[in-house]
């Protein structure tokens, strides 16, 4: 499970034994040192690096979060994934043409165990799809034949359960595509209905497999030819069209981590890393509209939410319609596995930093908060 | 070499050979440590479990710069503080000294958090493994800083709860001098009763306090060992020239009570610092009344002697003044393990004077039968009952 276990344990054991032998001596040393420290500090002589006044309103250069922030940065190199590129990184698979002329899109996904850094300095023993949390954001076009080759390199049985329309045999539940470590399974079905969907492992217990990180976005773009009445809208949703290119599309998976395994989350985020987009705001070109594919996979809490500051958006619940299901709102709620598409624009705004976050203040303060850096283009 | 031979040799040249024999186990121990540390024969027991982690919060300081906590690490490996939550919000913090925290060592965490006067807060450390260590601040009040006026104020409280009642009790001396044998036994038994109450009260408090200290201090054992050591040491010193009586016995009682009052001062000071007790007039008066019997107890062994006047001053200060010192330390440099240690030492000292006063009673009276006489039993029960009833005013 932990990749560096052998070297880890050698030092641990030797330290433990060394510690036992030296216990008497160190305890005495430790306590005398503490005694001195206490007096020193009692007299108020503690060195103060950059004292901030906790009662003063944070100034602009401290950012909108003030002192309410995780300390340090997560190194994307060690994790192998970076939350900023992840916003726009789609897995399109490989496309071939079948005998009947239809497109066949093939994805390859591997499950593996991986220790990831979910907040600065905090490691989490995750179960991943393709070594990242959330897993790859799969994107296809309505009506295509999809083939997902799934290999389990993890230490537990896993599956890919797609939210979509398919046969029971392709459902990814026990007895239908739930495979043991070392096995392979190919899920095959048509891409339908169009919308913003997700997939996740459906091994049991489901809670554990969800909160360990086994989920990802699964987006099916509408085929404009099938929706003549809303052709323009459908084209703007279809990746690769000129209409779509003017949009700034972002994938946001709202997730959380229970690092001490007590059945409640210690960290909340969008795309895994707590406060990632607060520390590195998402660059938005003012004139281009924004579309967010928003998916909630938060375990243990009944709902999650998305609130946009200083702006309103149109919302397409589950993304299965081409007209908004909610118009002109600045907050939506999602239960687990609920998802939808948000569309908004900063064209008439002043350039600057605009906040977004869950409007459960607890989630916000535990990491689920970010900023859009709206720039002139 | 057989055992008798060894004995014969050791009688000839005892020192060197004994040392040589001591070298053998020591060398073996060294080799064993080196082998275990290098070859790691226990590797097969490894179950990939994460290291054991433990943090103990020893001090909390609230001031205009936010919150500071002193935490002691007790993990099987050096521990890392990754993030700090205050009231379920990640908050910026600095660690002093920085870096991984070795087992047994402490660091200060400084969190610029705008705590709210009189309200509750919770600090939660998240380590690199994601384990969390919670500390609750039940009532946030500014931590006292040692200004001259504060030290005076605390000294005044200490004098009221420690020195004043002892002095009042000792002022009964002239009146008590006239009592007969039965009255004398009653007063001595009353003293034993009050001491017995203090012994139980102090031991329980020491054990309770020790539960809040880091596991590596082995709190309950620390208390028991400190108590046993102080008991045996004081017994040995006291019996150097026969069992103590008269003024000497009074001084031992004063010492035991002084240690108790020191512990009481620590508790009041700590409560003051933690904001868990408003030091109302009621509480201070309660302590004063509760401690009046202490003076009577100290006076009991010298009722039939004529000690010099200065000894009364000395007895009062020895028994009462430690409350002042306890208050200062308790509010400014409080740590659970030190309080537990001092309370343990105090309990041992109290046990010693119980033994000595009881012995004194049997010696001056009619042997063991004295202990079962009506005045003694009544005195003992009255002593315990008085302490119990007056304690109701000071227990929260």
Automatic annotation (TrEMBL), chain A:
Sorted keywords for this record are: Capsid protein, Cell cycle, Cell division, Copper, Metal-binding, Oxidoreductase, Repeat, Virion
* One Pfam family from the record: Cu-oxidase_3
What does it catalyze? nitric oxide + Fe(III)-[cytochrome c] + H2O = Fe(II)-[cytochrome c] + nitrite + 2 H(+)
Q: Which PANTHER family match?
A: FI03373P-RELATED (PTHR11709:SF394), MULTI-COPPER OXIDASE (PTHR11709)
Entry cofactors: Cu(+); Cu(2+)
Outline the subunit composition.
Homotrimer.
| Domain of life (superkingdom) | Bacteria
Q: Which InterPro entries match?
A: Cu-oxidase-like_N, Cu-oxidase_C, Cu-oxidase_fam, Cupredoxin, NO2-reductase_Cu, TAT_signal
- The name on file for this protein is Copper-containing nitrite reductase
Q: What organism is listed for this UniProt entry? A: Devosia limi DSM 17137
What are the recorded Gene Ontology BP terms?
cell division
Q: What is the lineage of its organism?
A: Bacteria, Pseudomonadati, Pseudomonadota, Alphaproteobacteria, Hyphomicrobiales
Q: Which family does it belong to?
A: Belongs to the multicopper oxidase family.
Residue stretches making up the Plastocyanin-like domain: 114-223, 267-375
Q: What is its EC number?
A: 1.7.2.1
Per UniProt, where does Cu cation bind? 158, 163, 200-201, 209, 214, 359
Q: Name one GO molecular function term.
A: copper ion binding
TrEMBL record, chain B:
Which keywords fit this entry according to its UniProt record?
Membrane, Transmembrane, Transmembrane helix
Residues annotated as transmembrane:
151-172, 179-200, 212-235, 242-260, 266-289, 309-334, 340-359, 371-394
**Name under which the protein is recorded:** Zinc transporter ZupT
Q: Which organism is it from?
A: Devosia limi DSM 17137
């Amino acid at each position: 499970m932990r990749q560096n276990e052998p070297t880890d344990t050698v030092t641990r054991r030797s330290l433990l034994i060394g510690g036992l032998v030296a216990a008497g001596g160190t305890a005495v040393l430790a306590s005398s040192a503490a005694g001195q420290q206490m007096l020193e500090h009692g007299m108020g002589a503690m060195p103060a690096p950059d004292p901030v006044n906790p009662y003063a309103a944070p100034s602009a250069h401290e950012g909108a979060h003030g002192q309410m922030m995780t300390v340090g940065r997560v190194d994307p190199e060690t994790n192998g994934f970076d939350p900023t590129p992840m916003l726009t990184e789609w897995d399109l698979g490989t496309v071939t043409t079948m005998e009947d002329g239809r497109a066949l899109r093939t994805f390859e996904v591997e499950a593996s165990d991986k220790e990831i850094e979910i907040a600065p300095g905090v490691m989490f023993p995750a179960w991943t799809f393709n070594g990242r949390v959330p897993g790859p954001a799969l994107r296809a076009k309505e009506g295509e034949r999809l083939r997902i080759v799934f290999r389990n390199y993890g230490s537990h049985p896993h599956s890919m359960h797609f939210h979509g329309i398919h046969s029971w045999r392709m459902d990814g539940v026990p007895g239908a595509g739930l495979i043991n470590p070392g096995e392979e399974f190919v899920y095959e079905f048509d891409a339908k209905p169009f919308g913003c969907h997700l997939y996740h492992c459906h091994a049991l217990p489901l809670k554990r497999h969800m909160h360990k990180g086994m989920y990802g976005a699964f987006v099916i773009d509408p085929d404009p030819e099938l929706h003549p009445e809303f052709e323009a809208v459908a084209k703007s949703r279809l990746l690769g069209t000129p209409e779509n290119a003017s949009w700034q599309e972002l994938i946001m998976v709202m997730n959380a981590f229970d690092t001490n395994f007590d059945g409640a989350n210690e960290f909340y985020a969008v795309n895994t890393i707590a406060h990632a987009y607060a520390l590195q705001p998402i660059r938005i070109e003012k004139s281009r509209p924004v579309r967010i594919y928003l998916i909630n996979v938060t375990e243990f809490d009944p709902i999650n939410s998305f609130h946009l500051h200083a702006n309103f958006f149109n919302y397409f619940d589950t993304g299965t319609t081409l007209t908004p299901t909610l118009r002109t709102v600045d907050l939506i709620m999602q239960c687990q596995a609920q998802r939808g598409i948000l569309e908004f624009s900063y064209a008439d705004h002043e350039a600057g930093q605009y906040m977004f976050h869950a409007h459960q203040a607890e989630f916000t303060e535990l990491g689920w908060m970010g900023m859009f850096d709206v720039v002139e283009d | 070499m057989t055992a008798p031979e060894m004995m014969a040799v050791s009688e000839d040249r005892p020192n060197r050979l004994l040392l040589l024999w001591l070298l053998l186990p020591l060398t073996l121990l060294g080799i064993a440590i080196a082998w275990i540390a290098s070859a790691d024969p226990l590797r097969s027991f490894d179950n990939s479990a994460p290291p054991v982690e433990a943090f103990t919060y020893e001090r909390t300081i609230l001031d205009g710069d936010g919150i500071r906590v002193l935490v002691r690490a007790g993990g099987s490996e050096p521990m890392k503080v990754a993030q700090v939550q205050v009231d379920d919000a990640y908050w910026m913090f600095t660690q002093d000294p920085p870096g991984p925290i070795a087992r047994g060592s402490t660091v200060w965490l400084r969190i610029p958090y705008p705590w709210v006067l009189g309200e509750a807060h919770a600090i939660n450390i998240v380590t690199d493994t994601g384990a969390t260590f919670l500390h609750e601040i039940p009532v946030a009040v500014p931590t006292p800083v040692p200004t001259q006026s504060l030290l005076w104020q605390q000294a005044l409280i200490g004098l009221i709860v420690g020195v004043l009642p002892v002095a009042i009790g000792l002022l009964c001396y002239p009146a008590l001098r006239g009592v007969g044998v039965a009255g004398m036994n009653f007063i001595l038994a009353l003293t034993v009763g009050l001491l017995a109450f203090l012994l139980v009260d102090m031991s329980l408090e020491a054990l309770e306090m020790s539960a809040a200290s880091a596991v590596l201090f082995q709190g309950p054992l620390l208390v028991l060992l400190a108590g046993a050591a102080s008991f045996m040491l004081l017994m040995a010193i006291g019996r150097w020239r026969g069992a103590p009586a008269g003024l000497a016995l009074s001084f031992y009682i004063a010492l035991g009570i002084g240690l108790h009052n020191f512990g009481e001062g620590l508790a009041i000071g700590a409560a003051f610092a933690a904001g868990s007790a408003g030091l109302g007039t009621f509480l201070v008066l309660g302590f004063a009344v509760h401690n009046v019997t202490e003076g009577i107890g100290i006076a009991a062994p010298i009722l039939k002697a004529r000690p010099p006047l200065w000894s009364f001053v000395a007895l009062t200060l020895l028994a009462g003044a430690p409350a002042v010192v306890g208050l200062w330390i308790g509010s400014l440099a409080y740590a659970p393990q030190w309080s537990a240690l001092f309370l343990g030492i105090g309990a041992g000292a109290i046990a010693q004077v119980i033994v000595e006063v009881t012995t004194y009673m049997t010696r001056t009276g009619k042997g063991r039968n004295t202990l079962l006489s009506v005045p003694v039993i009544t005195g003992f029960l009255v002593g315990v009952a008085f302490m119990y009833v007056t304690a109701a005013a000071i227990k929260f």
